[in-house]
Design brief:
single chain; about 280 residues; mainly alpha; two-stranded antiparallel sheet; about 60% helix; about 5% strand; elongated
Length: about 280
């Protein structure tokens, strides 16, 4: 038996004759040709994504089996498996073995998406100034956007986050955890944002700060004034949100971000000078 040829088209023609006594074939419309030709594996992966959209499949729904995908895309078993593995790595599908097993539509969580995107900055880490330039532009709008969308349970979540740093820390470890909790307050707002793109970008900025080496040093440094400032701004922000005062929410968040940027950039410069002095002594 001749193996399927990867060079053929991936989909059956919609005009092909159809026997009413046979099960309906899956028709995948041709994709617009990109400027850069995709590898065959990538092309099939994109075709499977098209199939998910065309058939309105949801997370947990079963995909066609391997044999059906081979026939559908006129591809070899190894090529189809490689395409499925690629989608599984991206979190878009999941496979299960044993009784009731197969390949199913997955759902990529926001945290996993941020983790994957963060890999892009692994060797090109942004500066604190880069991150705060974005936060200052976006987070005032983020704060205003959640007005009218917060429930009593949402306010309770925000308050519980603030409770983690309402008292002075006992040691440097707790100082660090409190700084992360302050970021968590903003991440909660990002998750509640009705604009998923705005919320995701702001949440991603928070993740970048959590993962920057210099920020870990800064967050572990005692600074009671900073903690009190954060509490002041966040308490004021919650009052503005409850009053549904969008202008006040924007103003408070703007001031909060500008104050935080000044502190973080000054701290970054202080630590950098300290590292340089240590290097000279060696």
């Amino acid at each position: 038996m001749t193996a399927p040829d990867d060079t053929h088209g991936k989909a059956m023609s919609a005009n092909a004759p159809h026997d009413s006594n046979e099960p309906e074939s899956i028709i995948v419309p041709p994709r617009p040709q990109p400027e850069r030709r995709l590898k065959r594996t990538d092309d099939i992966a994109e075709g499977i994504k098209d199939l998910i959209v065309e058939k309105s499949l949801s997370p947990g729904d079963r995909l066609p089996n391997e044999r059906e995908l081979i026939d559908l895309f006129h591809a070899s078993k190894s090529t189809v498996r490689e395409a499925l593995k690629s989608l599984e790595t991206q979190g878009l599908i999941r496979s299960r073995t044993g009784p009731g097993g197969g390949t199913f539509v997955g759902e990529l969580s926001g945290s996993r998406a941020m983790e994957l995107l963060g890999n892009y900055f692994f060797f090109r880490q942004p500066s604190i100034g880069d991150i705060y330039a974005v936060r200052i532009k976006l987070e005032p709008d983020l704060a205003a956007s959640v007005i009218g969308h917060l429930t009593d349970a949402d306010y309770e979540t925000l308050q519980r986050t603030m409770n983690l740093y309402e008292r002075p820390p006992r040691d440097r470890g707790e100082e660090y955890q409190q700084r992360l909790a302050e970021l968590d307050f903003h991440s909660v707002l990002a998750e509640l944002c009705p604009n998923p793109i705005l919320g995701f970008i702001c949440g991603f900025m928070h993740n970048l700060l959590r993962n920057l080496t210099i920020c870990r040093h800064i967050y572990g440094s005692p600074n009671p004034v900073l903690r009190e400032q954060a509490l002041h701004y966040q308490i004021s922000l919650i009052r503005a949100l409850k009053a549904e005062d969008a202008d006040a929410a924007r103003r408070i968040m703007q001031e909060h971000m500008e104050t935080a940027r000044r502190y973080m950039e000054e701290s970054e410069a202080t630590f950098t000078r300290g590292f340089l002095r240590l290097d000279r002594k060696r």
